[in-house]
Amino acid sequence: MGFEFIGTCPLLQVFDMPASIAFYCGVLGFEIVNHSPSGPRPGLDYGWVLLERSGVELMLNTAYEQAERPPTADPARVAAHGDTMLYFGCEDLDAAYAHLRSNGIAAREPKVAPYGMRQLHLSDPDGYGLCFQWPASQQNYDQWVERYGLKPMLVE
């Protein structure tokens, strides 16, 4: 290839930035590492934020300028969010599930998908899908050893 690039950082359009920050930072443990200036309400009323946790980056941007924001989210716009799914590697899915449930998040109990990944599904405040997953088959685990540098081991 004629050029190089590193990493990727999805950008999600959100309706209520403080609610999204409460979810991603307060529940999932991300930290704000950069942001636009605050909006008219002091605190977490940013138009854009860059979040980071364990090398995973995610950007959030308000779907509307403050003066143009309707009182409620546009259902047609939010309906399309269900087509978006972010996948995160997470070894201890049982602990993740317990943590999410203790924080009032309607996560589905982890289960093994037909292709050998144990997965925990939930939605963020804007309806974007999140999936925390870990290899449940030896073949998938061995691929993750190669891809992510995990310690080789036998999967039970």
Automatic annotation (TrEMBL):
Native source organism of the sequence = Acidisarcina polymorpha
* PROSITE patterns for this protein: VOC
- Which segments of the protein form a coiled coil according to its record? none
* Family annotation (InterPro entries): Glyas_Bleomycin-R_OHBP_Dase, Glyas_Fos-R_dOase_dom, VOC_core
Q: Which Pfam families match?
A: Glyoxalase
Q: Which SUPFAM superfamilies match?
A: Glyoxalase/Bleomycin resistance protein/Dihydroxybiphenyl dioxygenase
What is the name listed in the Swiss-Prot or TrEMBL entry for this protein? VOC domain-containing protein
Q: Where is the VOC domain?
A: 2-135
